[in-house]
Structures are given as structure tokens and as C-alpha cells.
């Protein structure tokens, strides 16, 4: 296990770290509220997600990912976004 992290390991750490960089403690669990989620989209995903840089589009995406409808993005819900982006990188169309 000695040596440098692989590119994949670095990427996984970046995925997790980016969530916790913006997440706030919401009743005992870390989650992104709408403002934090928009900040993450604008600061970290402006190249992959060019169409959700506006607040309105960000709100729509939050609604789509917020499966338990609590207006917050949990780590599990964020993971769904990561999966969608990976699918898009692989050539899929995740838009609809
Ligand atoms: Ca939620």
C-alpha cells in the first residue's frame, strides 16, 4: 500500500472531499442545502454541467436528485449526481 495514490484513488477522494467542503450539519447529518449545492455546481462542476450554472437550473437538478424530498442533498443523493456525470463522461446522455 506504500507509494502514491492512483489517479482513481485521488479522484475518489476528490469526489468525497468536494461534498464535505460544501455540506453543512443539518440535524446531525451532513447535507447540501440549495445554496451550498449551487455553489458546488458553480465552483466544482462548471465544465461538466454547463447547463446548470443558473440558479433555476440548479434548483431543478436539486429537485431531481432529492429523492426523499427534504430539500437537502445527502451524500447518497450526491452520489447519484456523480453516477450521472460518470455516465455522461462515458458517452451517455443523462439529461432526461
Ligand atoms: Ca434529500
Automatic annotation (TrEMBL):
<dbReference type="InterPro" id="IPR011992">
    <property type="entry name" value="EF-hand-dom_pair"/>
</dbReference>
<dbReference type="InterPro" id="IPR018247">
    <property type="entry name" value="EF_Hand_1_Ca_BS"/>
</dbReference>
<dbReference type="InterPro" id="IPR001751">
    <property type="entry name" value="S100/CaBP7/8-like_CS"/>
</dbReference>
<dbReference type="GO" id="GO:0005509">
    <property type="term" value="F:calcium ion binding"/>
</dbReference>
<feature type="domain" description="EF-hand">
    <location>
        <begin position="53"/>
        <end position="88"/>
    </location>
</feature>
<dbReference type="GO" id="GO:0046914">
    <property type="term" value="F:transition metal ion binding"/>
</dbReference>
<dbReference type="GO" id="GO:0005615">
    <property type="term" value="C:extracellular space"/>
</dbReference>
<dbReference type="GO" id="GO:0048471">
    <property type="term" value="C:perinuclear region of cytoplasm"/>
</dbReference>
<keyword id="KW-0479">Metal-binding</keyword>
<keyword id="KW-0677">Repeat</keyword>
<dbReference type="GO" id="GO:0048306">
    <property type="term" value="F:calcium-dependent protein binding"/>
</dbReference>
<dbReference type="Pfam" id="PF01023">
    <property type="entry name" value="S_100"/>
</dbReference>
<keyword id="KW-0106">Calcium</keyword>
<protein>
    <recommendedName>
        <fullName>Protein S100</fullName>
    </recommendedName>
</protein>
<dbReference type="InterPro" id="IPR013787">
    <property type="entry name" value="S100_Ca-bd_sub"/>
</dbReference>
<dbReference type="InterPro" id="IPR002048">
    <property type="entry name" value="EF_hand_dom"/>
</dbReference>
<dbReference type="InterPro" id="IPR034325">
    <property type="entry name" value="S-100_dom"/>
</dbReference>
Amino acid at each position: 500500500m506504500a507509494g502514491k495514490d492512483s489517479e482513481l484513488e485521488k479522484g475518489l477522494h476528490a469526489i468525497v472531499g468536494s461534498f464535505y467542503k460544501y455540506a453543512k450539519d443539518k440535524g446531525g447529518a451532513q447535507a447540501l442545502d440549495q445554496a451550498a449545492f449551487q455553489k458546488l455546481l458553480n465552483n466544482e462542476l462548471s465544465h461538466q454541467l454547463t447547463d446548470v450554472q443558473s440558479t433555476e437550473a440548479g434548483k431543478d437538478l436539486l429537485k431531481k436528485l432529492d429523492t426523499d424530498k427534504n430539500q437537502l442533498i445527502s451524500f447518497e443523493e450526491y452520489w447519484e449526481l456523480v453516477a450521472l456525470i460518470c455516465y455522461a463522461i462515458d458517452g451517455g446522455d443523462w439529461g432526461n
